[in-house]
Amino acid sequence: MKVSITHQDGMKFEAKTSKSSFIIDCPVISPIEYFLAGIITCSATDIILMPKNQGKTVTDLVVDGEAVRAQPHPAKFDTLHLTFSFNSDADDTTAARWVMASLETYCSTINTIRDTTAISYSITHNGNLIRDNEQMISGDGTKIDMGEIESCPS
Questions:
Q1: DSSP 3-state of 81
Q2: Mean of pLDDT values over 95-102
Q3: Which of 42, 60, 90, 125 has the most CB atoms around its CB within 10 Å?
């Protein structure tokens, strides 16, 4: 993956990728807001594609993200809460699995910040709150003690 940023004028920059280009207009939308939008969009695409691959349909998808940033600089994300709201022709368990699969496995942007950011989520499916403020194993380089694990010698 390669991205090239070119200064246009003032605080406008053009971002070029191998597929397209777009303007980043600071401070209208800050780079950190673009970053958060990218994180959210990564998961949102999963919530559209996974059901489609299973012959299911998702409609009315809205994903809200709220990040709390550390102070002072570099002001990394301390916490991120994602709220998923959508309708589908699947049951609640399947809908929750789509979200969890996105967050825990498929969304590379969320998994890029997972070690340093405490991530939580809520899900409203077909108008019903099915998960509320669920916590992911994340944040601050969380380590899980698995005890002694036998492994192959290196």
A1: strand
A2: 97
A3: 125
Q: Could you give the count of Cα atoms lying within 13 Å of 107 in the half-sphere of its Cβ? A: 27
113 occurs within a structural domain: yes
Residues 6+ apart with CB under 8 A from 104: 136
**Residue 133, pLDDT score:** 96
Where residue 46 sits, what CATH number does that domain have? 3.30.300.20
Q: Is residue 10 part of a domain?
A: no
pLDDT for 108-152, tens place per residue?
A: 999 999 999 999 999 999 999 999 999 998 775 444 555 565 555
- Looking at the structure of the chain, the number of domains it has is 1
Find where tokens 């409203």 sit. Answer: 124
Amino acid occupying residue 7: H
Question: What residues make up the domain containing 103?
Answer: 30-135
pLDDT higher than threshold 70 for residue 76? yes
Taking alpha carbons only, the member of 71, 83, 74, 68 closest to residue 117 is: 68
CA distances from residue 61 to 2, 64, 135 in whole angstroms, order as listed: 29, 10, 21
